[in-house]
Amino acid sequence: MSLTTDVELPIPGTYMFDGQAAMKGYPLNKMCYSFNKAENREEFLKDEDAYCQKYGLTKEQHKAIRERNVLAMIHEGGCIYYLAKFAGIFGLTVQDVGAQQTGMTVEAFKQKIKAQGE
Amino acid sequence: MARVIGGLTTSHIPAIGNAVPHERELLDDPYWKPFFAAYPPARAWLQKMKPDVAVVIYNDHGLNFFLDKLPTFAIGAAFEYKNADEGWGIPTIPPFQGDPELSWHIIESLVQEEFDITSCQEMLVDHGFTVPMSLFWPGNSYGGIKTVPVCINTVQHPLPSPLRCFKLGQAIGRAIESYPKDIKVVVLGTGGMSHQLDGERAGFINKKFDMLCLDKIVSEPEALTKYSIHELVREAGAQGAEFILWLAMRGVLHRKVTKIHSSYHVAVSNTATGLLVLENAA
User: For residue B58, which of B244, B250, B228 has the smallest C-alpha distance?
Assistant: First the structure.
């Protein structure tokens, strides 16, 4: 029941978090993994530049964090499961993050999801 | 001898974890009603069947495992499993009882069958494990149930293929049914259905594909094991690949099962939710 023959064609708007991405994103993901702990979230909020430096983020990763730009974080090797912990610091949900990545308002993003069930 | 009585699948969206303590009020809420209204038949089946152990096949989303060491297949072998702060505010719930004796029996059987397993004597369980437990045992009434967590990597590609996960499930089934104690085991497969959290395709849902999966998994699961991970990501979304956890659950069950209950709903948060109760044919 293989669907079509284009199985290896890239899927638009989709990033496979593979070994290459995992190597590139390691410092960024490691920092975000640390946000499981409340004291680390507090330390980040107190001085976020210092916290990014502590984890050795690249210049591009640091910029993406500073700008709260999730797509840029993904381009720099971020994995969404860890990035969600970063978003959580600001009380943002995966719906807020989805809206940001698709350039929609949160309300429009929610509507788009609902419409696919009809 | 131990017996697999059946299997359940459910989505494990974090938002559900926040909603579960308020289920009674939310049954009047138009957003939550179609979701929660689907669960009473699954709970009634569990109450009737009275399993002693739940084998929970789930994925860790960065609570217990990080990219420094990321096993493809990990099985808990602890006396107790705790959950913990995941960073974005899901409430933690009481610990789960383990069954290390059964865990080691499964691990030993699997390794003998050439599945290379990471055994974990300490293991935090995240929402992939806790949300289904609190949905199926309301009010966190899972105190009398022992658990065996089976964690499959869905974080970092390459993920194990649908076929490999189905075969893992079959091997777990053989392991359980060769366990000498007279216990009843239920298997949970968690996660899914279609959803995508990351990239410009975030918000993707594929109802047609989900319906196909819900249908085929009952009597023709082999048909679903022919997909590659790439195809699964394309059809079900980047995180919809969690469907491999459902296939692992299905592998544990017998060839012939009876569908007791199923439900599908778009959506909670970014995810199409699916619920399935399958009973093993005697």
Answer: B244
